[in-house]
Design goal:
Shape: globular
Helix content: 25-40%
Largest sheet: 6 strands, mixed
Strand content: 15-25%
Number of helices: 12
CATH architecture: 3-Layer(aba) Sandwich
Number of strands: 15
Order of helices and strands: EEEHHEEHEEEHHEEEHEHEHHHEEHH
Mean pLDDT: 91
Radius of gyration: 22 Å
CATH topology: Rossmann fold
CATH class: Alpha Beta
Length: 387
Amino acid sequence: MSRKAAAPRLKVSSLGPIQSADIEFGDLTVLVGPQASGKSVLLQTLKLMLDHRSISGTLRREGYDWQGKAESFAELFYGEGMEHLWTVDTQVNWKGEDITLDSLAANKVRTEAKASLFYIPAHRVVTLKNGWPRHFGDYSPGDPYVVQDFSERLRMLMETGLGRTGAIFPQAGRLTEATRTLLKRGIFGDFELRQELNGLQKRLVLQRGDEKPLPFIVWSAGQREFSPLLLGLYHLMPAGKVSRRQGIDWVVLEEPEMGLHPRAITAVLFLMLELLHRGYRVCLSTHSPHVLDLLWALRVLMEKKAGPEWVLKLFDVGNQSKNREIAAGILKQAIKVHYLDREEPASLDISRLDPESDSIHETNWGGLTEFSGRASDVIAEFVANHP
């Protein structure tokens, strides 16, 4: 897979909880930091920079009219209560150009442009209503745009016929065999994800053999969280010879670990490698030390010029040629990790994940291993003083 063009930088200041952030994107970019530190705001702003024409066109098509008012547009995009996110002090610089909310809200383009960033939000579980993706118009005007748009794209995917004649997962031709094995082991077990008619209404169910299908409401938290993510990945990874969705260059995935066991998180991270292999530029936000542990291991393998077999060993997948191709590709990718904290004056680039760094934010993986380190210190002190 050919290398992607050099990534632009996004610089923001005085934007909601973000005092200042300078984000240089890699092929894979990861944002870490405490809750309410601005990770979602920053990623949604990236979506706005890339796709403001598409966003405006979609909102108009769905009957919304903000009459060129910046605050109304901000609320429609970011969600209820976010109309004052951009203030007179806010500065946003995209690709070296200063961008104002007034200019975005005043966009008078009536034709609906295609989006270049596919956004998988943290709220993805709410996109399935009674086990079926919700229509854009089923949401209230106060719901974030990225949630409504993601839900609508899943609904359109299902309406094209996915799952009408067989299992949605596992499905030959969708994802690599190694990925399917990881997902079965970490998330679905012996169950298949299927579509069925419940009366006159379509819904997604889990089914094992000839047993009675299980409706969405009784699935495990991990299965409910992961299934809309899986459908989003199906959208990005078409079956057949086409490797990627035409026109989509960027993928944002918020908190891929939600509701998942570490084994399942590893499976999802391997899926991220497949997205990179297909040529997408991927951005994640996470609260999982497991994600950063995997990234640290990848960084070490890159620096030591390890072979792809070591990446496969890290993810516990087979050494088949397709897997080796994916693993070899990740060893050539640029990985960036940025730390955001509303208590810090600026974002921090902690991409080296150096455990001996002078920055505590880098040594404890952006705070994700802070408690485990403290627990070890407390127990060591106790044992030393209580032989």
